[in-house]
Structure formats: C-alpha cells, structure tokens
Amino acid sequence: MRIYTDEIINAICLNMADRRGVKPTDIEVQLSWEEEYGYTAEVWVNGRSQYLLQANIMEALEQYFYSEYKLRVFRSDILLGIDEEAEQFWAEARA
Prior knowledge:
By secondary structure, the protein is of the alpha+beta class. The longest helix is centred in the N-terminal third of the chain and has 16 residues, at 5-20. Strands 1-6-5 form a 3-stranded antiparallel β-sheet. It has a 3-stranded antiparallel β-sheet with strand order 2-3-4. A hairpin with a 4-residue loop joins strand 5 and strand 6 (88-93). Helix 1 crosses helix 2 (54-69). The relative contact order is 0.22. It contains 2 helices and 6 strands, in the order βαβββαββ.
C-alpha cells in the first residue's frame, strides 16, 4: 500500500496532536529530504517550530497505517521515497 504527501502530512499531524494535546488542524508540516539528514519534517505547533527526523516520521506512519487502514506494519516495513516527476513524497507499507 502506498500513500502520498497529503496522507504523510496527516499522519504527522495526528501524531503530533496526540503528543501535544492540540487539534490536528493546529499543526503545520513541511516535508523535506536532504542528503545529510535523510527525510525530515519541520512542524509548527502553536507558532513554535520543531524538526522531526526520519525515525519520528516513521513512528507517525506506523501509527497511521494501523489507525486508518488496520495494517500492522513496523518501521522496517515502511519505505519512504520521492516521486520527482509528480513532486511529491510517498510512503509504502510492505506487509
């Protein structure tokens, strides 16, 4: 199963909302990829910025795949990538 940028952002928003005790709509996310750090996300909650590393993104995706699709996948079963032609990120659960 493969999801794209919007759902990855939703996964991060839901995860951060649960951790911070705010509504998912109070969170903004910007995904990026850098050779030095891999996949990262800059997250704004109540006007404060925080960077998430790939491990944090994987945790959010792991929870999202289970809560939304009832797929029990582990981080090692999730592959992240970028579709440069479509200019979007993707995450694939290999179950």
